[in-house]
Amino acid sequence: MNKNKELAEIQQTLEQIYLKNMNFFKSKFASLYDAIIQFQNLQLEHYSLDFTNNHFELTFLKDNVKQYGCDPFLDAQKRLKEFTFSNAFAMIQLKPLEKKRHYENEINAYEYLNEYITCFTETNITQEVQKFIFVGTLLGVHINDFHNQLRAKSYLIIEPDIEIFRLSMFMTDYETLAQNSSLYFCIAQSESQINSIVNQFLEEFQEYNHFIHYELGSQKNAHLIPKLSLLLTQFNEMRYPFSEYILSLQRGYHYFFNQNKPILDLSKEYTFLENKKVIFLGAGPSLGENIKWLEKNQKEFIIVASSAVLKQLELFLIKPDVIIILDAKKEQMIRQFDVSPSFYEKTIILASIKIDFDLYTILKHNPIFFMQNTLELFLGNGFFSGITVGDIGTGILLKLGVTKLYLLGIDAAINSKTGATYVGTHESSTQVDLSNNNTSSSIDFEKDILYVKGNFQEQVPTFIEYSEMIEQLNHTLQKADSKVNIYNLSDGAYFKNTHPTHTKDVKFTEAIDKATFYDEFTQALNTISKTRLSSLDSKNIQKERKILKKISAIKNDEHFYKNFLQLKRNFEYSIILSIINKYFNLINPYYNFFDSKKEANKIRQHQIAQLVEKLNTIYATVKEK
What pTM was computed for the model? Predict the structure, then answer.
C-alpha cells in the first residue's frame, strides 16, 4: 500500500470516529455537543494533530512545541503498566476516627464508621476500581485502554481545554466507553458547573465512593489534583452525617411536644427589623480589636450575638438583645453561658432545635424561639442551613427583615498579623503559624490555610471551612433585597454586597429603647411561631409512623438496602427515609470496601437494628396535640 493511500485511510478512520462521537454527544450529551459546535464555529486553531514517524503527536502551534510528542498507543500501554493504586482520592478513612463530635447515650456516626474501620485488613478489602477520573485527556487513546482493563462503573473525564478534547474525539471512541459505564464530562467548564457535575458523579454508584482512582494526562493538569481533592472532600457525608438529623428529630419533637416551645416559621420574609440598626457579633479577632468602641456605642444598636462571644461581652458590660445558638454540643455550649444569669435576663433566644437539653434548662425562662435546621420536622415551616453561625445568623436576620446590618467579628479569617483565630475569650482561640503550609495530600478543613479577598486588606488568610462559609454568605447576600445595607466592620474576609466600613466611620443618630424592642420583638416572633399541629402536620406524622412500620417489617439481612430503596421510591418525601438514606450514604462506601461482605453484614445488621429502634423510640414519645 502506498503512503498516500495509507494516510487517506487513516484520515477516513479518524473522521469516522469523530462523526460517531459527535452523533453520540448530540444524542446523550447535548450541552457538550453544543459547546463543541460553538468552538468549531470560532475557527480557532491552537493545536495540530500531526502524523509523524507512524504515530500521532499533538503540537502547540504558537511556538511549535510538542504537547504530546510520543506514540499515544505505546504511551497508553506504558501508563497501564505503571498505573498504581496509590493514585486515588481517599473518600473513606482507614484509621479509626477520633472522638470529636460525641453525644453521650446517642447514636454517633463516627462510632458507626469505626466499627467497619477496625475490621479492615489487607486481605479483606477490595482491589476493584469502580469509579475513575481522567484528569486531562490528551488524545484519549489511554482512556479506552484503561477501561478495557478496569471496567469501572463510572468515569469522570476532565479536560480544561475544549480544543484538546475535540482532537481526542478523532482517536477515542467515547460511545464504546459508555456501553457498560456511566460517563461524566467536565470540558472547559466554570467552577460552579464542575461542582455540579462532580456531585452527580459522586451521587451515582454512591456506594463505591471509597477510593476514587485517577490518571493524570500531563503535568499541565497537575494543578487540578488538589482542587479535585478539596471538592471531593466537601461532599463527604461525614461533614453533616445522619446522626445530626436524628438529634434534630429527637430534640425538636421534645421541645415542641414536651416543653411546649414554639418553632419559628422561617418559610417567609418579615419586616420586624426593618430600619433598625442591628449589629451581629461573631467571635472573630476583630471583635476584640473593636470591643471598646462597641462598649461606648452599645446603646446605638440592637445587639445580636452568637453565643460564643458572651464572655467577651460580659467583661465590658455589653448586654446582648438577641442571642443565636446553633450548636448541639453540651459541655462547650454550657461553658459559653458561664456568665451571670442577669447578664442575659432580658434577652431573646433564637435557638436551633438541636441544642442540648441541659443548656435549654439554663435558658428556659428566657423568651426562646426554636428554629428548624436542615431537617424540616414540620413541612412548610422553613428551616436554616449553612456552614457556621456567621452565615446562618446573617441569613436569619435577613429573613426577619433587617435593612441596616453591621457585621463585627464575622471575620471568616485569621488575623494576618498575629495568626489569631478567634477573640481572646473564645475557648478555641489559638494562634496559627501562617508560614506553615500543609504538604500532606489529605485535606483538613479546620487547619489548612488559603488566602481570600480581604475586607480592608488585599488578601487575608483563612481556613478552608471559612472559605465555604464565605461562599455561602456571598450566595445569601446576593439574594438580599436592594434596600438592605450591610456594613462589614471586620478586618477579615470581604463579602459580596457589603460595604467595607471602619468603626470610626459609623454614623450614629439616637439611642435605641431596648425595653420597647424586647417587648415588640418578642410579640412579633410569637405571631410567626408554630405552637400546635396543623391537620397536615398530623397526617405527616401518621405517614412517618406507617413508613417506620414498613421499615421494621423489612428482613434485616444482606438484601435490606435493596429492599429499602424499593420502599423509598414509593414516597416523595419522608423524614425517616431521608435519615436512613443518609445512614446508607455514609456507611455504604465502607461496607463495599470489604471484599467479602460476611463481616460487613454483621456490622450493618446490628446498626440497622439500633437505628430503627431509635426512630421507633422517638415516634413513640410524640404526643399529638
Answer: 0.90
